[in-house]
Amino acid sequence: MLCAVLLMSLFCGCTAEEKSGSEELRVGVLLFNEDDLFISSMKQEIDKCFRRKEKEEGCRITVSFSDSMGSQTTQNEQIDTFIKRGYDVLCINLVDRTDAAAIIDKGKKADIPIVFFNREPVSADLSRWSKIYYVGTDASEGGRLQGEIFLDYYKKYPERIDKNGDGIIQYVLLEGEPGHQDAAIRTESCIKKIQEGGVEMYRLAGANANWRLNQGKEKMEGWLTEFGNEIEVVISNNDAMALGALDAMSASQWSDIHIEVVGMDGIEEALLAVKDGRMMGTVMNDAQGQAEVIAKIAYKLGRRETPENMQDMNDRVVRVPHDKISAEMLR
Ligand code: BGC
After folding, report:
1. Which has fewest Cβ within 10 Å: 25, 258, 298, 310?
2. Are residues 67 and 148 in the same domain?
3. Hey, how many other C-beta atoms are within 10 angstroms of the C-beta on 325?
4. Average pLDDT score over residue span 93-108
């Protein structure tokens, strides 16, 4: 429907006859990098939510995903293609979150609304047009909950963490991508929460491992060689890097070493690791909840309606709450 039949015929080669009477909403979803474990789980959830919406609303919804493979230039070209094809609405997981202005202006010119997600445009960009939304989380809440997981665990099993019994926790830090809104803020609020809980922390080392399992593994291999059993806890900005640290620790030369790890996201592999005690806990970065909000807003915008106000929405920004996940909760 909403995709103008004329535009469809111009760009897709569909005839007006073929399209007449069909209520169709066309949604373009651009992913910054499908290799990213969290983003690939978001892709599945977004698809499921639109399939559900299709049934609920009795309207055909075509969802086309494209993988920008970590290149903003590629993503810009993909956006141009969706615009040329007259898509009704775009859901964009930016590669470079500081690069939204030109994209918003393109959407505005073509009157194609945009729901950004996971990689947050700066607020000045979000105010460029009223048909721009953002769906994500509150990074400081996520970090704070990681800190709480640590404190709960430390209270129960102090000896499993403070191995040298000096009352100070020696930690290493796996940070996400520099400049990503979820990296530095998660770190800062996690450490702050732990310190507020009365626990002294000492940072042995920290590095950006760019959300990646293999980079987390590499960094951890280096730290194990340098510090060995001195490391008492690994704080990771996400589960993929935490799983990389676990991989590094599983090498036979470290079989005598015990180091606690806390992650973030709640991806399947990490939930298993929490359940079987290889990770102290993780924080649920609710992919399903975020996908539901994205689908709800995109559906309304695509139909040229204004999305209703919802819980956790403020100035067209929705921050879906996190949850703590510990082994007890999974057993
Ligand atoms: C997630 C990471 C993911 C990143 C991608 C973060 O919110 O926690 O796992 O790699 O988003 O932008």
Report:
1. 310
2. no
3. 23
4. 97
pLDDT digits (tens, 9 = 90+) for 243-255: 999 999 999 999 9
pTM tops 0.90: yes
Residues having CB closer than 6 A to ligand 1 are 36, 38-39, 118-119, 180, 182, 211, 238, 240, 264-265, 285
Place of tokens 């979803």: 29
Please tell me the total count of domains within the chain.
Answer: 2
Spatial separation of the C-alpha atoms in residues 29 and 15, rounded to whole Å: 25
> What pLDDT, on the 0 to 100 scale, is given for residue 126?
95
What's the rounded mean pLDDT across residues 65-91?
98
Percent of the chain with pLDDT over 90: 91
Question: Which atom of ligand 1 sits closest to the CA of residue 239?
Answer: 9
Q: Which among 274, 209, 281, 216 has a CA at the least distance from the CA of 248? A: 216
d(CA 148, CA 213): 24
Q: For ligand 1, what atom is nearest to the CA of residue 180?
A: 12
Distance CA 155, CA 136 (A): 31
Backbone angles phi, psi at 2, to 5 degrees: -65, -30
Question: What's the distance, CA 27 to chain centroid?
Answer: 20
Both 151 and 69 in a single domain? no
* Residue 4 maps to a domain: no
Please state the atom number of ligand 1 nearest to the C-alpha of residue 285. 8
Same domain, yes or no: 96 and 177: no
